[in-house]
Specification:
The protein has 355 residues and is an alpha/beta fold. It contains 15 helices and 13 strands. It is 43% helix and 17% strand. It has 2 domains: 233 residues, Aspartate Aminotransferase, domain 2; 94 residues, Aspartate Aminotransferase, domain 1, CATH 3.90.1150. Strands 2-8-7-6-5-3-4 form a 7-stranded mixed β-sheet, sandwiched between helices. A 4-stranded antiparallel β-sheet has the order 9-10-13-12. It has a two-stranded parallel ribbon with strand order 1-11. The structure holds pyridoxal-5'-phosphate (PLP). Pyridoxal-5'-phosphate binds next to helix 4.
């Protein structure tokens, strides 16, 4: 037991911003949140959170759900029919990390866009759109991710995002934003939630990542879409009862943990610059726009999995996302001192690995 405690003390956990512990202020807010049965619609804290989010994102309504995956999947279910096709970047979360949910739960196929850092263009939308023909799946929905996770925490240029959505609407498609980390885009650009959300029929956002909540995500959209999202949430088993205890954390996070994302962004830049000085590591600090730090490792350091294992043994937890690619994530439980330490440990580990 003692060794575990000692180890825990020196572990720097950069696997994800989902590993954050609720702060004491957040725990207090959770304790004090007035509660009701949300399935009956009478949890005042859930209702308050939904109102806050609807107004913040400039939409008519909002629905609180347990996870980001359920937020995306209920949004897909509420805007498609089986046999429909979703235009989405091939590196997006919906494609990689949702257990094939769009196919299993909504009967949808994907038309995959490609492009640097998770971005694509209005022209890609025109190319991937399928005209009305009995042979084809029916193009119905387009989904963008901002910030883009596997794109390296990249932020969409606003005009490009607007162009893509306008083109989609001209073609009669619905538009969804996977905004799991939209908070980071808001803070990094000073472009507000309303402006980022405006081109979209539905937007999902996570409280359980950079904002530091134990669980919970939101879907916002027009009344009719959210009515369908609410039905899908029930069908997928995502209704909760006294969930105000979680919504209380989310309200607290919106008020208290949003501005501090600036610190995570500057920590990420620091990490990127430090990592890039290490022999065998390539990390583009300029492309490190938010809190996700992706870097490539030379084969002389082994592959991502083996290097991560060595980092783990030395107290830095990280994820290998591709064969020669590793991701570090900054968040509210990582201090500047730990960032400096993580760079030093990585440098030492790499030095040994290349010998
Ligand atoms: C984490 C994440 C999700 C899903 O969140 P979960 O709460 O883990 O289900 C969706 N989209 C993106 C881009 C994410 O990074």
């Amino acid at each position: 037991m003692r060794t575990i405690a000692l180890m825990a003390e020196r572990i720097i956990d950069l696997r994800s911003d989902t590993v954050t512990q609720p702060t004491s202020g957040m725990r207090q807010a959770m304790m004090e949140a007035p509660l009701g049965d949300d399935v009956w619609g009478d949890d005042p804290t859930v209702n308050e959170l939904q109102e806050i989010c609807a107004s913040m994102f400039g939409k008519e309504d909002a629905c609180f759900v347990p996870s980001g995956t359920m937020a995306n999947q209920t949004a897909i279910r509420s805007q498609t029919q089986p046999g429909d096709e979703i235009i989405v970047h091939k590196e997006s979360h919906i494609v990689h990390y949702e257990a094939g949910g769009a196919a299993a739960l909504s009967g949808c196929s994907f038309a995959l866009a490609s492009g640097d850092r998770g971005l694509f263009t209005a022209n890609d939308v025109r190319t991937l759109y399928r005209p009305d023909d009995d042979h084809f799946g029916k193009s119905k929905l387009i989904s963008l991710e901002n910030t883009h996770n596997r794109g390296g925490g990249s932020i969409w240029p606003l005009q490009q995002l607007v162009d893509v959505c306008e083109t989609a609407h001209e073609l009669g498609l619905r538009t969804h934003l996977d905004g799991a980390r939209i908070w980071h885009a808001i803070i990094a650009t000073d472009i507000d939630a309303k402006t980022w959300a405006k081109p979209f029929d539905s937007v999902s956002a996570c409280f359980s990542k950079g904002l530091g909540c134990p669980a919970g995500s939101i879907v916002v959209g027009d009344k009719q879409t959210i009515y369908k999202v609410r039905r899908a949430r029930k069908m997928f088993g995502g209704t909760m009862r006294q969930s105000g205890i979680l919504a209380g954390a989310a309200i607290y996070a919106i008020k208290n943990h949003l501005e501090r994302l600036k610190a995570d962004h500057s920590h990420a830049k620091m990490l990127a610059k430090g990592l890039n000085t290490i022999d065998g590591i390539t990390c583009n600090a300029e492309n490190t726009q938010t809190n996700l730090v992706f870097f490539d490792i030379d084969k002389m350091l082994g592959d991502g999995v083996s290097l991560c294992r060595k980092l783990w043994e030395n107290g830095v937890l990280a994820e290998s996302l591709d064969l020669q690619k590793i991701r570090f994530v900054t968040h509210l439980n990582v201090t500047v001192t730990e960032i400096e330490k993580a760079i030093q440990i990585t440098a030492d580990v790499c030095k040994n690995a290349s010998m």
